[in-house]
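User: Teach me something about this protein's shape.
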Amino acid sequence: MFKLLPVSLQGPPAASALSAELHPERLIPSLIAGGITGMIGVIRAISYAALIFSGPLASELNIGVGMAIGSSALISVVVALTSTLPGMIATPLAAPTVVLTVLAAGIAQQLVLADPQARVLTVVAAITLGSLLTGLVLWGLGQLRWGRGMEFLPYPVVGGFMAGTGLLLVRGAFTVMTGEDLTLGHIPRLCQGMQCLHWLAGLAIAAVLLWATKRVHHYLVMPGVLALATLVFYGTIWATHLPIAVVRAQGWLLGPFPQGSLWHPLTMGRLSQVQWGAIAQSSPMLGLLVFVSLLSLVLTNGSIELAVEKDLDLNQELKAIGLANLVAGLGSTMAGNQALPSTLLAHRLGAANRLTGIFKALPCVLVLGLGPTFLDYFPKPILGSLLLFLGLDLLWQWLYGAWFKLPPVDYAIIWVTLIAINTAGFIPGIGLGFALAAAQFLVQCSRLNTVVDMGGIKGQGKAGLESNLTADQHILGSMHPYSKDETAAIAPTVAGDALTNTLSRNIDAIDTVQLQGFLFFGTAKSLCQQLCDRILHRDPDSPPLQYLILNFQPVMGLDCSAAMSLKKVAKLAQKHGCTLVFCHLADPYERLLQKSQTLSLAGGHVLPNYLTAVSWCETQRQTVAAAQTLATCRNLPQDAAESPTVELGIAKGSGLV
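Assistant: First, the predicted structure itself:
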């Protein structure tokens, strides 16, 4: 994708590469970034464990905490050593955790009358089996190099899945804080006495988190707010002189937990107590876990590529996270994925090193070594607020933000998928979303005009016919308005060489991409890759690309997935000083690109046809070239600057007269 900054590492790093990271200028940033991401990972792991081990499993939360924190440590180390990107951070994520929550709840419901020890061991075995299965499938896909074939994901279906995950996280947050699910039947009990205070406290912290993260983009915002909330919580206890026993009895704290280790790996003796029949009945959820992990990897991989502007080998990333999940499964811990926020944090701190991911495991190991003692004093509203924050942020993005970006039909698919997930379950909901997206695609294809008016070809002659054929045969093509000989002819004087060289350097500053066919979710990823490559992958002797013309004349259709891919391209172009120019853009496509904010990011340069677009770019380019030439000529010797040939060269070549 981004060949300008390739990542050549395809396997574990050499010892010399790791030893080079031990120098203080690289070691210290790795320690800082690893410590921060590790602390954030511990807090998230505890919240995820509280989500999975809730209800009838709440008494075994210490086992869940050990699984989540152990997973954060194991996966982080393996991915740090095997990813194509130094500084890649991996951890359990929200979406797979929600699937594990549904899986654990289903097994607990099946075994409600069984022995509690057998019930929790069955849940642990199911989570472990999910990690092993996820690791095996993802590693196999990477080994077979099928990574790019996994990117046919309609944007509305992804949106519906993310919104559904957000709603389940919100419901899980209420379960963690109050022990009651957020349903219509439970609302009266949630509004009574202490229960109401529990979730109101978590909601207040989540609201502050949302506000702070939207207003201040700093890596310390989230841990800072959570730390401040914890201080306020215990400050209130100290000011009111409430005994900890009373606070615990009122349900504000986790626990109590049995003494001993947090990590409880499965042994051969314990396997005999596992109810394998209950796991077999929940096998569809294990398959869904694999799918969701793959979905999370594809989405995260694409976002990281755009953010760090490096080409990641998706097949190697599949093998890396597959191997990491296999190790997590062997350690009786839960599945995980590459984490976008933590990875970007490591790169922003200048810690794009493999040691960062290894150091991220240190806080996890420390907590596992301390045991469950500190968990007895962990406030439930803090954990619930983090889950609420994650869930509300997803709902805000996909239900509120998507309203302004998507056409009504695509937005409706998000809502239908969301409702289906929360009423019928993940698998029926996602299946319904894919069915609706496929139906919409077929309807759009059926509306295409299959008859092309060829009347104008007759009068065009051979050149016009060849031009039309060329337009149909090539998706991407380059355009340079003038050759170097033509540029030299503009100012063919000795003293005018400054102008000639300036114009020659700007010849390659304009490029054209001619799009064709139906731009939909199946081609959206490839479209984004090729356009980003045009912006970044430049010949070392060529100037940076200043104008990229997107010719939509042969395009037959455009859906929201492709529009959102073009939005990513517009962001990258804006960052690198490249202006996107759109021509032959049909009204429906223009409205869609306007609603997705692609045109606003690109500057809104929409021109009626290709020649007008070329002329506009040339005018802008020549203006810049003339300004550069004037500045150059001011630095020429006095006798050359006064030469009439120089004045003639500037006037005729710059377009100022």
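Now, about its shape. The longest strand covers residues 510-514. DSSP finds 30 helices and eight strands in the chain. If you'd like, I can walk through any region in more detail.
User: That's plenty for now, thanks!
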